Amino acid sequence: MSEKQNDLFTIGIIALMLLAFSVTDVLAHAGLLHGDFETGATAPVYTSKSLMNGTYFEEVEAYVTADFYNVTRWSRLVQKAELLMGKRDWNDVLLGKRDTFFEKHLTREYEGAKVQESLAYLKNLTENHHARVMLIPTADEIWSDRLPLYADAFDQKAYLDQVREIVGEEHYLDLYAVLAEHSNEAIYYRTDPHWTSLAAYYAYYAWWKASGKLLPYYYDMRNATVVTESFVGPLAKAAGLEAKGEEILVFEETEGKSVSVIYDDYYVADGYYRPEHLDSDNALGYFLGERFGAATIQTGKKSKPELVVFGDENSHLLIPLLAPHYSKIFIVHLDQFQGNPKALLERRRDAEVLVVQSVPNWLDLFEQKE
Amino acid sequence: MEFGSIVFLLRFLPIFFILYYLAPGRTKNIVLLLGSLCFYAWGEPICLIPMAFTACSDFIHGLLIEKHQGKGTARILLSSAMFFDLSLLFFFGYADFFIETANIIFRTSIEKTGYPLPVGITVYTLQTMSYVIDVYHGRQKAARNLLEYAGFVTMFPQLSAGPIVNYHDMEESLRSRRMNLRQISMGAKRICVGLAKKVLIADAAGRLWEDVMTRQSSQMSVAMAWLGIIAFAFQIYFSFSGYADMAIGLGNCMGFNLPENFDHPYVATSVTDFFRRWNITLVKWMKTYFFKPLAGGKKSLLLQIFWVFASWGLIGLWYGPDWTFVLWGLWLALFYVLEKLFLGKLLEFFPAILRWAYAMLVVAIGWLFFALDDVADAWVYLQVAFGVGARGLMNHEFLFLAIQYLPTILLGTFFSLPIADAAVKKLEQGKNGMSIALTRFLEKVYPGVLLLISLVYLVGRGF
């Protein structure tokens, strides 16, 4: 090739590339090409004010960028390239081994005053209300071998050891040991920060053993109902990475029960499960629905005691298993509860009290203080 | 409109170049002017006002100064031109900065204007000022064609971040320029390199810097603090030099030759050397049009030192209306002065690697003033970088982040050093068939590959 041909080649390639990208995008927006526009961005509309102060131009730039032809495919391509180059952190979500996504729980975010306050709260609950503490270590603790190399995850085991020491053995249920024993099973969702029905099942039997109740209820994991096989949790979505769907299971024995759930004192629903959530962004809302401040489950077993649960979404998977042992279960999400938890416990002096939350969720209730 | 945006690359640029190449002869200047005005108006149309005013004012002042050359009137006209230029720059660019400072010092509560710093105002103001000064000194004939002059003032390639050019360097090309395939091809390659620097290195380094800054200084290990400084150093260098490459490349594609603005500043072995390599045209402008007239001749040493600090304080201010930028300039000026006084001679006794380490340490500390919002933050960060109040020397958080951004760090290091240029030169000089074939292959392939990767990143990252 002569020098002239070389130059023409360079100019041609660069010009073609720019034109190819820009023309396909323009044609696709004009409806002449099929492509994905999954972002749902809408074209901005100009006004004289937005034209003059420049906001219209900003909106156009944002729109053109967000709604580019096949943007999700380009995005996936970039992520695959980054994955090949060793990147394992997207939007504070870690991608570990065996396609497992982890929520980031950094050591520096879970220390100091936050820990001390949470321990004092637990001490008060156990001393004054005989609460039983079932704090759940999350996947980054039990599946720490799946974490990316050098990924920082705060030592939940060390925290749980402090909890055990503060509340005493009689009030402490060692879910760390229970889950660690089954760490090679699907006890956490790979794409979601919560434990699975299987983990809740193991926790239930551990609870029963420690509770002194006469007999456990029988739940058959082999006959569990698969409510969906295509669950992709929020962690994979936040990372923007493709992920294989997972199963959500429920125990057949918990389905079709005539229980009523009263949410925040005004909304009443039947049963533990809400199928309408399966196709939403919050598919795990299948278990007892959207987040709420407080809910009361009436099981109709009037002779049984009452239970107060200070819980999070993880507790929603366990509650259907515990329910046959109680006449009423009061579920309180402390971060959204409008009332006074102390007053609630005073009113329910005879009720048993359980704290069922993941360790990070529990600690997040206590503001970080420097 | 940013050079590294989809709107610029995939909307503005194709349309502009199609029209530019279709336009015959001197009508190219009309396309250039209209294109530049669109580019400039894209952010905030109101910003066209100071630009138009500056262009017209300096064009008229230039003509009048030339007419009264050698008379007292010319001096008055020069002062008048400077007054208009600086007033506009002050009002649109720095009024709020000075109001805020006055409010702090005098405890007043003067209301701010709320005008954002118009894009390019610091570039075109310096260019037009140098033009009028050159006309006054007879180094430059006054422009007689407003279209050509407006094209010079508004020319979009170098409007964002330089290089700062003189009218006499552009005059000939503005009047008549011959474009050839070689120049266009070189320009196109340069655009690809600049875009890759911005998108693949500067933006990634920026994300690393942001990631480091999500924690407070007291939560960082020493290694983490230095990782942050390195990230910022790469972000700022590859942003500015990437834009400069694109500007030079765009200029080439239009038939202009813009001057180089960066020359591997991170291989500097002294602060003086760093000044020769960093934002070359700005430093040169400040030397020619500010320092020399004020401090040149037989001025006392103290006065010269004062003007060095003043020059560098102003260079800092050129980057943005904030005292931390001024402090950055003064910090570097301090070592520049020390090197001129005695440190330069002393450094000669040390091996090059130690001189380089000294220069980079000074530059790195300077970047902290540049990067952080206030001096107190920079001071705390600096302490952590030297182990005071740090969370150990190194921890898992650092190692994890370093692995996540390893490609960026490696690319940044590689392209900060003249290794790539040296390798290309060696290949070009090679006489064996293999070397020639490889050079030709790389020459053909690399611009397209860089552009493709950059575009994919740009589109994919925007999601």
Characteristic terms for this protein:
heterodimer; A: 370 residues; alpha/beta; 2 domains; 7-stranded mixed beta sheet; 3-stranded antiparallel beta sheet; 13 helices; 38% helix; elongated; B: 463 residues; mainly alpha; 19 helices
- Count all strands of chain B and give the number: 0
Beginning-to-end CA distance, first to last residue of chain A: 67 Å
Q: How is the main sheet of chain A built?
A: 7 strands, mixed
The secondary-structure class of chain A comes to: alpha/beta
Mean pLDDT of chain A: 86
> What are the segments of chain B in which pLDDT stays under 50 over at least 5 consecutive residues?
none
Task: Note down, in words, how this protein is organized.
The complex is a heterodimer of chains A (370) and B (463). By secondary structure, chain A is an alpha/beta fold. Chain A folds into two domains: 3-88, no CATH class; 99-364, no CATH class. Chain A is built from 13 helices and twelve strands. Chain A has helices at residues 3-29, 48-52, 55-66, 71-84, 113-129, 139-142, 156-167, 175-181, 197-211, 234-239, 313-322, 341-347, 359-364, and strands spanning 89-90, 93-95, 101-103, 132-136, 225-231, 246-250, 260-263, 267-270, 294-298, 306-311, 328-332, 352-358. Chain A starts with a helix and ends in a 6-residue tail after the last helix. With 463 residues, chain B is mainly α. Chain B has two domains: 6-177, no CATH class; 183-417, no CATH class. Chain B has helices at residues 6-22, 27-41, 48-67, 72-106, 121-136, 146-154, 167-175, 181-212, 222-254, 271-277, 280-295, 301-319, 323-347, 352-371, 375-385, 396-404, 406-416, 419-429, 433-462. In chain B, helix 1 packs antiparallel against helix 2. The two termini of chain B are 19 Å apart. The mean pLDDT of chain B is 87. Chains A and B meet through helix 1, helix 3 and helix 4 of A and helix 1, helix 8, helix 16 and helix 19 of B.
